[in-house]
Amino acid sequence: MRRLWPILGLGMVAVALVLAAPWLLLAPSHDRDWQPVYGRVAQVTPLPDGRVRLSNIRDWSYAPDGQPTAQTWIARDLDPAQLRRVWFVMEPFSKNPAIAHTMLSFEFADGAAYVASVEARREIGEPYSALRAALLPTHEYLWVWTTERDAYGNSTWFTEDALYLYALALTPAEARAILREVLADTADVAANPRWYHTLAANCTNVLARTVNKTRPDAVPLDVAWLLPGYADSFLHRLGYIAPGRDFTTAETAAHITPLIPAAYTAPDPTAFSRRLRAAMAAQDTSATSR
Q1: Under a CB-based contact definition with an 8 Å cutoff, are residues 138 and 57 in contact?
Q2: What InterPro entries does the record point to (predicted)?
Q3: Which of 140, 217, 233, 239 is the most buried (most CB within 10 A)?
Q4: pLDDT single digits (tens) 42-72
């Protein structure tokens, strides 16, 4: 048996090298024939007055059958001093409760809100495979910035997923620091393409590592890093979501799927975000008064 250990050890090293080789030899790229929703890379330009110009924000509109009716890309000057609140967005997309997509939304004093989402960037005709992306460098990942109207309309009608929007309990300084780090990482990914990995570089743990640059261990390692469907309950346990309220109540108040169709009739993205939050406040008041 002792003679087998060196052979087994060499075999394990060989397997590890075979698995690692594609990740080391293949270079990620922004130059591919991308699906239109991933067609542009968000660009970050610092301005002299402390604001930041964010370009290639997706602001598409969708019909109730899920088809895009307008494919608009916009640019906005963001002022961290005008940041009002950071929101955590949860999008379950499977019957398995462990599976979900997570995002951050940054709400500003004028009511405008922009969603930052780490996504596996796919080429035309390329399906998403979580298993394949865990084994091989299949997709690059990208910080996709959108208006809330685009992100939530896409989820409601195009992918038909549920949505939950949680206000994060952060100080103004913490919120601004997170915005700055997300923008910095957006700029870095735009300059240096990166591979997506189902376990090591997914929508949730890239967010967590980015937030942890603002304060070490702000979001400690947890199973939610690997299984994003548990991310909202994890953040609730940490006190970032609805401190002082039980999670079931917080989750009910955060469920925005039924509110989106009415809000979607708003004339512009900022009006959509304002209308959605007014509906959320009314929904929460109604629930707590029962």
Answers
A1: no
A2: Lnb_N
A3: 140
A4: 999 999 999 999 999 999 999 888 889 999 9
In this structure, are residues 47 and 53 in contact, taking their beta carbons and an 8 Å threshold? Answer: yes
Report the C-alpha gap between 30 and 28 in whole angstroms: 7
| pLDDT for 19 beyond 90 | no
189 sits in the region (left: phi over 0; alpha: psi -120 to 50; else beta) called alpha
**Residue whose tokens read 């923008």:** 183
For 187-217, the pLDDT digits (tens) are 999 999 999 999 999 999 999 999 999 999 9
Written as six digits, the tokens of 185 are: 């990482």
Q: CB burial class (10 A; 0-12, 13-18, 19+) of residue 99?
A: middle
**Sequence-distant contacts of 93-96: CB under 8 A, at least 24 apart:** 93/159, 93/161, 94/229, 96/229
160, 121, 159, 125: which is closest to 139 by C-alpha? 121
Paired tokens of 150: 């685009």
Q: What mean pLDDT comes out for the span 119-128?
A: 95
Among 146, 162, 141, smallest CA distance to 68 is for 146
Query: Dihedral of the CA atoms 170, 216, 225, 258 (nearest 10)?
Result: 10
φ, ψ for residue 165, nearest 5 deg: -125, 110
**C-beta of residue 207 within 8 angstroms of C-beta of residue 104:** yes
List the structure tokens of 248: 């079931």
Residue 142 has pLDDT above 70, yes or no: yes
Token duo for residue 3: 């003679």
| H/E run at residue 248 | helix 247-254
Residue with tokens 């005008």: 82
Both tokens of 22, joined, read: 């594609």
CB-based burial of residue 257 (10 Å sphere; 0-12 exposed, 13-18 middle, 19+ buried)? middle
